[in-house]
């Protein structure tokens, strides 16, 4: 007579399937994630120290130093407010960009040298670079790139709440003129209870319509536009309390969503295996006939539970990941308006 017996493994898998929702609940707490990220991320002071080392290395060995210098300069993009308030750091960054351009030029990569010099011209916000002091070739390239970027084009920012505007990590006026190129724009409310910061990019083209940005909730009725910049005595005291550039407003951290999907996939695969195994002989024999085995696997219930729980976790993680990725891409919704590109956050 055939009898079914449950495997210890099946019981273990059932316990894992039951524990999956608890694991998801722990993953939904985003608090540890930013702490871990902040612990590993360098500060602006640390980046400035690395900048000096990378500049020296780029001068001595451009092939090795240029990639490191480029990485340090890119890391400084994450400190818009701190970099804007530090003139010495601003000057160090411009010097680093010029050294990077010269290193690329020495390696024979004029396109990469031009890109670094363009970035320096945009970050300078009209200040003189005097790239020629690093060599006549670099000075000639600066003249060429200034002509290539063309005349500045207008950028207009309107805020429905008092705000501060940063363009390429420098504080900017609400109405400004910028040369052709792509710019990083960071806008934050002056008040602590204001809307979340806007962190986006814009592209400015000479001769194209003005780029317009709107920050804050749309006003209920038309009225005078609130000032975007100006003196604020409380500004320095609240600098450390501002939301960081990395704040994403995600439903869950990306790692939690991916982990949930991975756990769900494993649970579904395990459940399918258990359903296939159910009703088969434990010793591999036949389930019917004169030599039918007595012991059959009884794994249908844990298999169903594992497939169900895993499927829910896989689907839920996928939906959350998809929603968060779409939100990140559409954080600044652009609409083509008669006066140019208008973005409201």
List keywords for this structure.
11 strands, five-stranded mixed β-sheet, four-stranded antiparallel β-sheet, 16% strand, alpha/beta, elongated, 345 residues
Task: Tell me about this structure.
With 345 residues, this protein is an alpha/beta fold. Among the domains are: 3-30 and 253-328; 42-149. It has helices at 8-27, 32-40, 44-60, 62-75, 80-84, 87-106, 110-124, 136-149, 254-277, 300-329, and strands at residues 3-5, 153-159, 163-167, 170-171, 175-178, 181-189, 198-204, 211-215, 295-297, 333-337, 340-344.
Please give a quick description of this structure.
This protein is an alpha/beta fold and 345 residues long. Helix content is 49%, strand content 16%.
Structural class, from helix and strand content?
A: alpha/beta
Number of H/I helices: 10
> How much helix, percentage-wise, in residues?
40-55%
What is the number of strand segments?
11
The whole-angstrom Rg is: 29 Å
Topology of helices and strands:
Layout: E1 3-5, H1 8-27, H2 32-40, H3 44-60, H4 62-75, H5 80-84, H6 87-106, H7 110-124, H8 136-149, E2 153-159, E3 163-167, E4 170-171, E5 175-178, E6 181-189, E7 198-204, E8 211-215, H9 254-277, E9 295-297, H10 300-329, E10 333-337, E11 340-344
Parallel strand pairs: 1-9, 2-8, 8-11
Antiparallel strand pairs: 2-5, 3-4, 3-6, 6-7, 10-11
């Amino acid at each position: 007579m055939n009898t079914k017996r449950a495997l210890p493994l099946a019981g273990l898998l059932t316990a894992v399937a039951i524990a999956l929702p608890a694991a998801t609940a722990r993953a939904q707490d985003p608090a540890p994630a930013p702490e871990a990220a902040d612990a590993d991320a360098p500060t602006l002071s640390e980046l400035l120290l690395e900048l000096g080392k990378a500049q020296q290395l780029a001068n001595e060995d451009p092939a090795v130093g240029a990639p490191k210098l480029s990485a340090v300069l890119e890391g400084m993009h994450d400190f818009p407010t701190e970099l804007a308030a530090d003139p010495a750091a601003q000057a160090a960054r411009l010097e680093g960009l010029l050294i990077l351009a010269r290193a690329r030029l020495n390696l024979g990569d004029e396109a990469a040298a031009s890109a670094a010099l363009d970035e320096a011209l945009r970050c300078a916000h009209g200040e003189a670079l005097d790239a020629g002091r690093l060599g006549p070739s670099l000075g000639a390239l600066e003249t060429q790139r200034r002509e290539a970027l063309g005349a500045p084009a207008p950028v207009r920012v309107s805020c429905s709440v008092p705000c501060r505007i940063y363009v390429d990590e420098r504080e900017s006026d609400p109405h400004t003129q910028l040369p052709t190129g792509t710019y990083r724009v960071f806008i934050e409310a002056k008040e602590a209870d204001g809307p979340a910061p806007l962190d986006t990019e814009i592209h400015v083209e000479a001769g194209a319509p003005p780029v317009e940005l709107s920050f804050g909730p749309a006003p209920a009725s038309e009225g005078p536009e609130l000032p975007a910049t100006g003196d604020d005595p409380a500004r320095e005291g609240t600098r450390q309390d501002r939301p960081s550039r990395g704040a994403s407003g995600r439903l869950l951290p990306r790692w939690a969503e991916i982990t949930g999907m991975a756990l769900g996939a494993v649970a579904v695969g395990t459940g399918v295996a258990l359903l296939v195994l159910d009703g088969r002989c434990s010793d591999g024999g036949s389930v019917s006939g004169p030599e039918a085995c007595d012991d059959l696997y009884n794994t249908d219930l844990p298999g169903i539970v594992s497939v169900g729980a895993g499927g829910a976790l896989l689907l839920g993680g996928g939906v959350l990941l998809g929603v968060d990725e779409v939100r990140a891409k559409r954080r600044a919704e652009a609409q083509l308006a008669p006066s140019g590109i208008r973005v409201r956050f």
